[in-house]
Amino acid sequence: MVVDLSDFDYVLPPDAISQAPAEPRDASRLMVIDRAAGTSHDHRFAELPELLRRGDCVVVNDSRVIPARVMAEDLERRCVELLFIEPIDSVRWRALGRPGRRCRPGARLTVGGELGAQLGILATEPDGVRIVERRDGSVGDLLEAHGVPPLPPYIARHRKPDIEDRERYQTVYARVPGSVAAPTAGLHFSEAMLGRLRAGDIEIHAVTLHVGPATFRPIKTARVEDHPLTAERVTVSPPVAGAVNRARREGRRVVAVGTTTTRALEGCGNADGTVQARDGTVSLYITPGYRFRVVDALVTNFHLPRSSLLVLVSAFAGRELILAAYRHAVEAGYTFYSYGDATLIA
Q1: What rounded mean pLDDT belongs to the chain?
Q2: Could you give the strand order of the β-sheet that contains 297-301, starting from the edge strand earlier in sequence?
């Protein structure tokens, strides 16, 4: 199925991009999008326990955002920004670097001044990712000492996040470090909200998908299906796979919290809708025409134009319905993107 990228564009006023999260977490707004009826309705996220059904199987992504952004200097004291993506071992990581001309193989960088941590660029991979080696210790220790939360560039303070961002750009159930961007649908959940869901006989289970930078990159190819979407690390444990499969056998809904959870479940799904346990990677790219096998409902934020995430939710609910809902969201004053409001697509 050939899909034109221009079909996934919309107009968003700059002041609709949220610069700060709602307080408390579940104070954000929630648009409920009904796929069967082709309608949308305005709610508050705090109403979610009443909007879900008893027996629903809610699946979240418990990946924890690492302090992946580090500011370094080259030998001429010029600034270099590094975004550490994933480890190869304790001293070598894959990372993005800019400006690229200061991150060529052989370049040497320091973090924290002349006597600070010493880094070397070992190689450049075909997609532009650098292999970075720390020469005097572990990269993990470097990130803990000098790294900051990797806020998206549309948040004005992304280079100098607030202290509060270390906690708020993280879900309350984050457990496994590894993401370079938050699974943002989960930012709306508080511990109290999770308790209310469980009290309503709603199951909550966690998979782990470490979010990489490719997830949030805009599509630049004219045809959506030509866009390369990098594989991401995933863990679906046998107990969680069993819980999802049991819910499906019993006719209960599987509700994915976030597009990353959706990619994990569908990427580990079989043709009959069962989920297989996995500890590896998932490379599934969901575009219109894809037949969803596992996920019945989706909690997710409002996504960037021309992004693989907008393509995914359009595949789930239909492009026309999603874009109509987005137009209403703009008119009704919803806030967009990572720290913005949410949708429940059912």
Answers
A1: 96
A2: 39-44, 29-34, 342-345, 297-301, 254-257, 57-61, 203-209, 232-236, 278-282
What domains appear along the chain, each with residue ranges and CATH number? 5-65+166-345 (3.40.1780.10), 69-146 (2.40.10.240)
Length of the chain: 346
Tell me the C-alpha distance between 118 and 146, whole Å: 13
Question: Are 70 and 118 in contact, with CB atoms under 8 Å apart?
Answer: no
Structure tokens at 239: 């107990």
CA distances 108 to 72, 94, 127, 198, Å, are: 10, 15, 21, 52
> Residue 233's pLDDT band (boundaries 50, 70, 90)?
very high
Is the confidence at residue 345, as pLDDT, over 90?
yes
Cβ proximity of 118 and 110 under 8 Å: yes
Contact 292, 318 (CB under 8 A): no
Contact in structure between 245 and 293 (CB atoms under 8 Å): no
**Is the whole model's pTM more than 0.70, yes or no?**
yes
Write the DSSP symbol of residue 205. Answer: E
Helices 319-332, 308-317: crossing angle, 10 deg rounding: 110
Q: Are 38 and 328 in contact (CB under 8 A)?
A: no
Q: What is the mean pLDDT of residues 35-54?
A: 98
Contacts of 190 (CB under 8 A, 6+ apart): 24, 25, 26, 172
Reference 255, options 7, 90, 53, 21; nearest CA is 53
Average pLDDT over residues 61-78: 97
d(CA 140, CA 125): 21
Q: What span, in angstroms and rounded, lies between the C-alpha atoms of 284 and 282? A: 6
Backbone φ and ψ for 194, nearest 5 degrees, come out as -60, -40
What local confidence, expressed as pLDDT, does residue 214 receive? 78
Instruction: Return d(Cα 89, Cα 327) in angstroms, integer.
Output: 46
Give me 276's structure tokens: 């297989």
- What single letter denotes the amino acid at residue 315? A
Give 218's pLDDT tier (boundaries 50, 70, 90).
Answer: confident
Which residues are CB-neighbours of 293 under 8 A, at least 6 positions away? 266, 269, 270, 271, 272, 273
